[in-house]
Each structure stands twice: as structure tokens, then as C-alpha cells.
Amino acid sequence: MALLDGLAQLLEDRGLVNFQASGTGGDCYLEWLPPAPDAIVALWEYQGSEADARLAHDYPNVQVRTRAADPTSSRTRCQALVDALHGFSGRLPDGTAVEQMLGTNPTPIGQDAAGRYEHTASFRTVIRRDAAIAAGRE
Fold first, then answer.
1. Of 6, 79, 77, the residue nearest 45 (C-alpha)
2. Under 8 Å between Cβ of 89 and 124
3. What is the Cα–Cα distance from 37 to 14, expressed in whole angstroms?
4. Quick one: what percent of the chain has pLDDT higher than 90?
5. SS3 assignment, position 40
6. Which residues of 28-50 are buried (b: 16+ CB within 10 A; e: fewer)?
7. pLDDT digits (tens, 9 = 90+) for 86-122
8. Percent of residues in the chain assigned helix, strand, coil, to nearest 5
9. Rounded distance between C-alpha atoms, residue 39 and residue 20, angstroms
10. Domain range for residue 126?
11. DSSP code of residue 31
């Protein structure tokens, strides 16, 4: 599994999303926003700062995006996800070692073409690459 899969499973385990790894159901999606259902969570991983080849850390950024029929529901859900992830440190269900996640407050990004409200929050993330550690880099 990858970072996003592990985060989605963590949020599922905490009762905040319904994640189906197949991507064909639930309300949590990885790297895409399907047209339905109205109320969803989507997770994206994007470029962070460059990694030092001598160290066993990567610094990806993660974006959480929520959508709902009304702005309060979208913002409230985004804030619940921020509360769950901001300051997180530990192993994700897939074994990914997260040293730290630091998140922003939910930010409204407007309405989609169907008039549904969206909010987003971003997280700076530090993960340990166990393969690099095993290879003697750190």
C-alpha cells in the first residue's frame, strides 16, 4: 500500500470515512472526485520538499478535500479530518511510518459545477523509508 491508502484506512478505522480500496464505493476516494455521491472525501499526495539522499525520510504533502451539499457539512467534515491528522505520528495500518503530519485549517474553495460546496486542507508530512534504513542510510 501507499501513503494515501494507509491514511484512508486510518480514517476508516476512526469512523470518519467509508473507504473501499477498490474505489467503487464508500465516500473516500484517492486522487479523484467522482460525480457521486454528493458528500465525499478525497485524498491527494503531491510534491513536498526534496529528500536528502543520505537520510531515510521523504517529505510528501497530502491534500484532504471534502464536498457536501451545504457549506457547513463540508467545512465540519474537513475540520474533523484535520483534527484526526494534524500532529499524527505513528504507523499507518499499512505499515507506513509517519513521523509527523502538520495541517492547515479548512479552506473553502467554492462550489463545483453541480453547486456542491468544497473545502480543502493540506498537510506537510514526514515519513520514514524503512527500506533506506535497512540499507544503512540512518
1. 6
2. no
3. 21
4. 75
5. strand
6. bbbeeeeeeebebbbbbbeebee
7. 999 999 998 899 999 999 999 999 999 999 999 999 9
8. 20, 35, 45
9. 15
10. 3-134
11. S
Greater pLDDT, 8 or 56: 8
Region 28-48: mean pLDDT is 93
Count of the separate structural domains present in the chain: 1
Give the separation between CA 38 and CA 15, rounded to whole angstroms: 19
Position 129, amino acid: R
Q: Is the distance from CB of 103 to CB of 82 less than 8 angstroms?
A: yes
pLDDT band at 82 (very low <50, low <70, confident <90, very high): very high
For residue 98, what pLDDT is reported? Answer: 95
pTM for the whole structure: 0.89
Contact yes or no for 48/59 (Cβ under 8 A): yes
Q: Write the CATH number for 91.
A: 3.30.2000.10
